[in-house]
Amino acid sequence: RGVGASCCLFDAVMLSLCLLPSWCSYSIAQFPTSRSNTLQHLAPTPSYLRRSGVIVALTEQEERVSKAMELTPAEALAESARSRGLALQLDDGTRKSHSMAENTAFVTGFFKGISTRPAFAQLVASLYFVYEAMESAFDKATDPSVKALDYPELRRVPALEDDMAYYFGVDWQSTVRPTAATKEYCDRIRSIAVDEPPLLVAHMYTRYLGDLFGGQMMGGMARSSLKLDDALGTRFYEFDEIPRAKPFIEQWYARLNDLELDAGAKQRIVDEANLVFAFNIKLFDELQGGKRAVLRTMWGLAKGAVVSRVGKIFRRS
Questions:
Q1: Most CB contacts within 10 A, which of 38, 132, 263, 269?
Q2: CA distance linking residue 184 with residue 212, whole number of Å
Q3: Where are the alpha helices (DSSP H) in 18-78?
Q4: Taking the model in full, what pTM does it have?
Q5: Is 221 exposed, middle or buried, given 0-12, 13-18 or 19+ CB atoms closer than 10 A?
Q6: In angstroms, what is the C-alpha Rg of the chain?
Q7: E-assigned strands of the chain?
Q8: Across 86-112, average pLDDT
Q9: Which residue, among 104, 74, 84, has the nearest Cα to 6 in the 3D structure?
């Protein structure tokens, strides 16, 4: 049962961290498709998606999030900037390159991250150091590609500083240090900032857009799992200056396509985006938490969704 839940949760987790298309929200139930009359016996209120040989039931809230955040295949977006240029190349290049083993590692890693408060605090710390390296590099950059895509609304360091104080106290800057995987990730950012600045575009794409697409959902899952104080500990996932994510992302993609880069530079950016994916898996690998903690977290979230749904039904009756 845990393995099945992991498969259905994969795409939502990927959006938070690497912006892979074909997103679907996590499910609270699965039903084998071999039973032709399965749907006839299910309550009519949830919606259903067919996903990798199973029927996935979505609660009302999950369906709303799914519709709001779903990345339609690029070929269906004739008028979208995602249907052409570097935007299409990045979407396709990152979608096709990851093995199922990597996908599973990403899912397991995220749920390990929200299984305990210390694990999530470590994840927040790693993200702080990564974004500090990224945004320091953007501040110093003179490359036109980097400057064109560096929107102030996307900056995450101030929000992460709030989260760091929440988890580690006001003296966190003198007590928290990056882990080995985090240091490797940050070293890569600083290296390309000097040697090949256009590659920073790949870090913007994989981190900023992924966080913007999946942030609301991921922050909500963390708050629910860890029972955090209201409005504290997940500021990283909140983009206060971007009230509507989809139009903003479309604008970002359009500007991405306008960059004056040759074919070789574009392919190196795609390759770098895939490298960022690998770096994030390494961050997860360092987190503390076993399989039982991961499954307990997933079950808790699923149970919470069921309770919420039942409560709504009773309030309507």
A1: 269
A2: 24
A3: 60-69
A4: 0.71
A5: buried
A6: 20
A7: 29-32, 47-51, 54-58
A8: 74
A9: 104
